[in-house]
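Q: Got a minute? One more chain.
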Amino acid sequence: MSATALVTVLELIGLYVFATSGALMAIQKGFDVVGIAILALLTALGGGVVRDLIIGETPPAAFRDVIYLVIPLVAAAVTFFAHPLMDRLAFTVLVFDAAGLGLFCVTGTLKALHFGLGAVQAVLLGVITAVGGGVLRDITARETPALVRVETDLYAIPAAAGAVLIVVAHHAGWPMPVVATGAAAGVFAFRIVAMLRHWTAPGAYNWRRSQPE
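A: Always. Here it is, folded:
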């Protein structure tokens, strides 16, 4: 499978799971059907649109191919009717978000490498692709974005780890379909374990606490 085909397949799967997380949050917040569709679209497409604008691929893929709009709307419709089967909506949102995080950090990094960006830039763009939709979802739902909340379990760090693995594999010539699938699954698992064990990133160092009394 070519890199372009791999990106497309993983991105379409990521669209569905991220859109589902957006629709679930909209339902959790009591949004109507229009709000559910909007939040699903924002969550699914936000990171990819930002990525495409940064690398100069315009118009973004979401506006060139209608499938990028259809998949989030299908996910929103399914969630609209099936959400009673999903107990504990808040946790379910996070599970779908973790799946999207893993898939989109891989596709964002691969696309950046395909456009000739350096290793550091590719990792950064992979993280932006992964977290961008979630940030837009949280802001629209009147939540402080999980990305910047002090008490948030590790979020961007798992995405960055997955992006670094993709860059290393690219330069080492490893089989990308295998590595990309493994990286997406690894980021998902990393994020889920971080949520269950409440791993958080360190805050600013407090000099006063380190000084003897």
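A: The two ends are 63 Å apart (CA to CA).
Q: Perfect, thanks.
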